[in-house]
Amino acid sequence: MDIGLIGLGKMGGNMRTRMRDAGLTVVGYDRNPELSDVDSLEALVDALPSPKVVWLMVPAGDPTRSTIADLKELLGEGDLVVDGGNSKYTDDAINAASLAEKGIGFVDCGVSGGVWGLTNGYALMYGGAEADVAKVMPAFEALKPADTTDGLVHCGTTPGAGHFAKMVHNGIEYAMMQAYAEGWELLDKVDIVDNVPEIFASWRTGTVVRSWLLDLLVDQLRADEHLDQLKGYADDSGEGRWTVEAAIENAVPMPAISASLFARFVSRQEDDVAMKAIAAMRNGFGGHAVKKG
């Protein structure tokens, strides 16, 4: 399979490598010429055989919308655009309808795996018509975790289904991280227990709270037991807000996820101790920037 990939940052660059390792021909474009295989979108499109498949890994919002508008002018009937960024699901219907005016297909794909996806593979949640999905399936198979039937799911044929599923995934992630962070703050504060990093490490085997997030937190605590090198500040990248908005629109009670979102807002007003653990985990799985203490 030949595929174009736009956006070669922390996620996109590793995805290019993983697809190439699986035997796919990947033509990558990035605004940073040191990362790019070609010097323009036009050159990327020209390098691909028809039907052309172009995968976007660019920031959500205007950067994605403007890139899709540019591709609409460069691609033709039977070609396909895949949005693998963290776009809001409501944007997908608009983008799909716009591309359809020229007979260009559209697939939205939520991608989870962070900076570890190159080694471990990526969980892929995608939405779109069966015929469009089939065109990009070799890339999905290359990117998903090996030796498992999980990690790859067609969430629905309606544009936005994949990004909606990824949005809820990230909302759940917010709440899980908040629970770990609050537990860490309490354990770190009291005098009755010692060796907090190893307490968390002991939970990684045989307990009901074990998870990859817990593994990442243990790594961070072993390197900096009290997280003294971090400020208690954590950004939100949008998905948590959108999850809460969707819950309100559908009258679904979501107290844990909404509280975890509001806790991040609090962290921007004062140095929040528990938020140091959130910052540490976000840095661990996604390479997100942290503020040093």
Describe the 3D structure:
- By secondary structure, the protein is α/β, with parallel strands linked by helices.
- Helices cover 50% and strands 12% of the residues.
- The chain is built from 12 helices and 7 strands.
- It has helices at residues 10-21, 41-46, 62-74, 89-100, 117-120, 130-143, 161-189, 196-202, 212-223, 239-249, 255-267, 273-286; strands at residues 2-6, 25-29, 53-56, 80-83, 105-112, 123-127, 152-156.
- β1 (2-6), α1 (10-21) and β2 form a beta-alpha-beta unit.
- The radius of gyration is 20 Å and the shape is elongated.
Q: What's the CATH first level of the largest domain?
A: Alpha Beta
Main sheet summary: 7 strands, mixed
**CATH homologous superfamily grouping of the largest domain:** NAD(P)-binding Rossmann-like Domain
**Level of helix content?**
40-55%
- Name the structural class: alpha/beta
| Average pLDDT rating | 94
Detail the poorly predicted runs: none
Number of domains: 2
Major sheet: arrangement of strands: 2-1-3-4-5-6-7
Percentage of residues in DSSP E strands: 5-15%
Name of the CATH architecture of the largest domain: 3-Layer(aba) Sandwich
DSSP summary: helix tally: 12
Salient structural properties:
Rossmann fold, N-(1-d-carboxylethyl)-l-norvaline Dehydrogenase, domain 2, 7 strands, 2 domains, alpha/beta, single chain, 293 residues, elongated
